[in-house]
């Protein structure tokens, strides 16, 4: 999907010593590695401490590009400390190892990557990823994969509430929704229609230094 964009900047990345992977079994691009074989061959044991001996709370974990307020997207530095703090949001809200988290959010943003995937890694939960949000298939996916936790942004919930009502609207195992930006009227309609789901609404910004969450529910 992003092959052309990757190949366009690959010479610069190679010059800077940056390794690039496709999340696939094979790579169609010379200089780009396939990640799935490496994952399958990786041992189950914890990573040896020598590989992370120099890592501190202030070490750079990744860059996440945000739109900011002007111009082109800008790289926000995500430190190891910030990564762990954001990933722990799920645990704070009651995410458990036996949960199945369903996210349709893009992984190039903090919500999908750090809260969703990171939160699952932090507690040992299962993460179900869908490449693109589909309002018509959302609850079918939740039933198919035994989803117990969903991620959202405000408009996503509005789209769900705007779908035609069905007799099986409440036939799901979702117990918790974690996200941000849901309007009050959508919140009420969502609970009225889809049942008593615990909604954890948070506020934060990738490039910010503080966040808020309705911890009391």
Automatic annotation (TrEMBL):
Q: Which GO terms describe its cellular component?
A: endoplasmic reticulum membrane; plasma membrane
Keywords linked to the UniProt accession: Ligase, Lipid metabolism
PROSITE patterns to which the protein is assigned, alphabetical: AMP_BINDING
A GO molecular function held by the record:
long-chain fatty acid transmembrane transporter activity
Residue ranges constituting the AMP-dependent synthetase/ligase domain according to the UniProt record: 34-212
Q: Would you say which domain of life the source belongs to?
A: Eukaryota
Q: Which Gene3D superfamilies match?
A: N-terminal domain of ligase-like
A biological process term (GO) from this entry? bile acid metabolic process
Give the catalysed reaction(s), semicolon-separated.
tetracosanoate + ATP + CoA = tetracosanoyl-CoA + AMP + diphosphate; a very long-chain fatty acid + ATP + CoA = a very long-chain fatty acyl-CoA + AMP + diphosphate
Query: Member of which family?
Result: Belongs to the ATP-dependent AMP-binding enzyme family.
**Name the record gives this protein:** Long-chain-fatty-acid--CoA ligase
Organism the protein comes from: Rhipidura dahli
Upper lineage is: Eukaryota, Metazoa, Chordata, Craniata, Vertebrata
Q: Which gene encodes it?
A: Slc27a2_0
